[in-house]
Write a structure and sequence with these properties.
The complex is a heterodimer of chains A (about 250) and B (about 375).
Chain A: E1 4-13, E2 20-30, E3 35-39, H1 46-53, E4 61-66, E5 69-70, H2 76-86, E6 87-90, H3 102-111, H4 119-131, H5 147-159, E7 165-169, H6 177-194, E8 197-201, E9 213-218, E10 221-227, H7 235-253
Parallel strand pairs in A: 3-8, 3-9, 6-7, 7-8
Antiparallel strand pairs in A: 1-2, 1-4, 4-5, 9-10
Helix pairs in contact in A: 3-4, 3-5, 5-6
Chain B: H1 2-10, H2 12-42, H3 45-48, E1 55-59, H4 73-80, E2 85-100, E3 107-114, E4 129-133, H5 134-140, E5 147-150, E6 155-163, E7 172-175, H6 177-187, E8 200-205, H7 211-222, E9 225-229, H8 230-235, H9 238-272, H10 274-282, H11 287-319, H12 330-349, H13 352-357
Parallel strand pairs in B: 3-7, 4-6
Antiparallel strand pairs in B: 1-8, 1-9, 2-3, 2-5, 2-8, 4-7, 5-6
Helix pairs in contact in B: 1-11, 2-9, 2-11, 2-12, 9-12, 11-12
The chains are: A alpha/beta (about 250), B alpha+beta (about 375).
Chain lengths: ~250, ~375
């Protein structure tokens, strides 16, 4: 069973003449251990898709399955548990809790929903921080960490509850190119090690090659994915060509 | 919840404004409660000196006012014969003036004539002697052995002992029934109490006797009396009821203000924390997690305000003149503490709807 399966998902905003189709009959699967890059111009529906997959929004139609859970069938009161146990989020704005240390930010997700940060949770948090190169920063507040360090803490938080799926929104937007790539490389290492599926929404072509697949979304519709590893051609060059054509299409349509 | 506690401990400054607003409200509640209890206790010391378990038998036409009541010896005999009655003693009171030899000043006093020892009273002294409220010691330096002249006729009584917490709106003197009748006749010649009669009977019930049941039996046996316990007697005094109503009204309004202050603070705080709450919901916090966090913070704030307000109130009360009727009673303080915590938590929970409405999708930039 794929880690993520999206079938015929549609999401609109507004009504009547004001209706905006954010997602239009989207089908997508992501396997365990696969890192998928989701790319597209602004307003293409990338973030909406991430939000629907993460059970932050309900689609108007269609089904989303994450692991064994059909997310679209869950009752409202079960969505929090789903997000806590099955999905890890890495936000564009990082969004660490400012008055919790790095370690406590990881433990916080274990304490939600009546849970306890027991000895096992603390060991896991320490292990993740070690792997993320933050063992000596465990007691620091976010304001005492660099942008890259904060992003790494956010990755640790996303992995803390051993999710089936990690959703990452623009991980490099606030980082320089070197640091941004390092963060995504780290993310890739962590999800691969654990066999976790991951969907990364990004504009940044410099990190696209770190994904197993690139999926393009334009005007709410998925363009068939292009496998990165397809032979001896210059992968980066091919992707840049593809992005140029996308930009051209976006300029034409706008 | 732990997240909320950590915020409270690591960002105390954020909660200082509401703590500062709550502290004087707590001071007000405690001081008001102190005045309420002080006035009530100072108006009922004579009643309470007889003991909490005892029952009071008054003429049913008196509506629990001693001054309007008269119970004759036949009625007393009938009461004594009721099953469950161990002991019956007469008690009467007259308000008049007194002049201690220490100062010569004229003071309003309440003179009680009584037959049985009470919780804070030894058996009645002999003729011409009195057990005296220790307020007179504080006010006029009256000591054991001093003489006080009582009433218009300046009846001399010698102080044989001092008693604590027996004030009945005015300092009290406790004398034998014969001395009381003499003083009462002198103070109000038109309302002489017949020999053997008293304004009320104080009944000692047998162990385990139900006060309501015994009271009913006594009234059925006499057909002319109304029997109540101590609480019933105190509640029946108009001045107590009026004071209690007035102060309780002010205290109630103060609690409402407390609730509104906390509600407003947490409403503003919730607005500030919308993004944080959206993120927490996105990573799996339920609305219940957030609401419990808010409740815990309200609890912490109210406990802090109670500690600071309690100390301030105690200091203020200590600085008040000694003759002001203020008493900080443990039961009242506990009620104020509980009321403050409850109203603070309820005030904080008024943000419930806003918290429930927070959309976790807002966490995605």
């Amino acid at each position: 069973m794929p880690a993520l399966e999206i079938r015929d998902v549609r999401k609109t905003y507004g009504s009547g003449d004001q209706t905006v189709v954010a997602l239009d009959r989207v089908d997508l699967t992501v396997d365990d251990g696969e890192l998928l890059m989701l790319m597209g111009p602004s307003g293409s529906g990338k973030t909406t898709l991430l939000t629907v997959v993460g059970a932050l929004l309900r689609p108007d139609r269609g089904a989303v399955r994450v692991g064994g859970d059909v997310v679209t069938d869950l009752r409202d009161r079960d969505l929090a548990r789903f997000r806590r146990e099955r999905v890890g989020f890495v936000f564009q704005n990082v969004n660490l809790v400012p008055f919790l240390t790095a370690r406590e930010n990881l433990l916080a997700v274990r304490e939600l929903g009546g849970g306890r940060a027991d000895a096992g949770a603390k060991r896991r948090a320490d292990m993740l921080l070690e792997e993320l190169g933050l063992a000596e920063r465990a007691g620091n507040l976010p304001a005492q960490l660099s942008g890259g360090q904060q992003q790494r803490v956010a990755i640790g938080r996303a992995l803390m509850n051993e999710p089936a799926l990690v959703l990452v929104d623009e991980p490099t937007s606030a980082l320089d190119s070197v640091l941004g790539r390092q963060v995504v490389e780290l993310l890739r290492t962590e999800v691969k090690k654990r066999g976790i599926a991951s969907v990364v929404v990004t504009h940044d072509e410099r990190i696209v090659d770190l994904g197993d697949r690139v999926v393009e979304i334009v005007d709410g519709s998925i363009v068939p994915p292009t496998p990165i590893d397809q032979g001896p051609r210059d992968l980066r060059g091919r992707l840049l060509d593809r992005l140029d054509s996308l930009r051209g299409r976006h300029i034409e349509s706008s | 919840m732990r997240i909320a506690i950590r915020e409270l401990l690591r960002r105390p400054g954020r909660f200082l404004p509401v703590g500062r607003a709550l502290t004087p409200l707590v001071v007000l509640l405690i001081v008001l409660g102190g005045f309420l209890d002080g006035l009530a206790l100072d108006s009922t010391g004579g009643f309470r000196a007889q003991g909490e378990r005892r029952l009071w038998v008054l003429a049913d036409v008196a509506e629990l006012q001693l001054a309007r009541s008269l119970v004759d010896p036949d009625t007393a005999a009938a009461v004594s014969a009721v099953e469950g009655v161990v002991e019956v003693g007469g008690l009467g009171v007259v308000t008049t003036t007194a002049s201690p030899e220490t100062t010569g000043e004229l003071i309003d006093v309440a003179v009680f004539g009584y037959e049985r020892a009470g919780a804070r009273l030894p058996p009645p002294p002999g003729a011409g002697a009195a057990i005296v409220d220790d307020r007179l010691q504080v006010r006029s330096d009256v000591q054991v052995g001093d003489t006080i002249e009582v009433g218009p006729g300046r009846t001399p009584v010698r102080v044989t002992a001092l008693a604590d917490d027996v004030t009945q709106s005015a300092p009290t003197l406790w004398v034998a029934p014969e001395t009381w009748r003499e003083i009462a006749a002198d103070a109000d010649p038109g309302a002489t109490v017949p020999p053997g009669a008293f304004q009320s009977l104080v009944v000692t019930p047998s162990d385990g006797a139900d006060p309501d049941v015994l009271g009913g039996r006594i009234d059925a046996a006499t057909t002319t009396t109304q029997t109540v316990d101590l609480d019933g007697l105190i509640a029946g005094q108009p001045v107590i009821a009026q004071q209690t109503a007035a102060f309780s009204g002010i205290i109630g309004v103060t609690f409402v203000v407390t609730l509104l202050v906390v509600a407003l603070f947490f409403a503003l705080l919730t607005l500030e924390r919308l993004q944080l709450y959206a993120v927490l919901k996105a990573v799996g916090a339920s609305s219940g997690d957030l609401v419990r966090g808010v409740a815990v913070q309200a609890l912490g704030i109210s406990i802090g305000a109670l500690a600071a307000g309690g100390l301030a109130a105690a200091a203020i009360v200590a600085l008040l003149p000694a003759d002001l009727p203020v008493r900080l009673e443990p039961r009242r303080l506990a009620a104020i503490a509980a009321g403050t915590v409850v109203t603070a938590v309820i005030g904080a929970l008024l943000t419930l709807r806003r918290i429930l409405a927070i959309d976790p999708a807002e966490s995605i930039g």
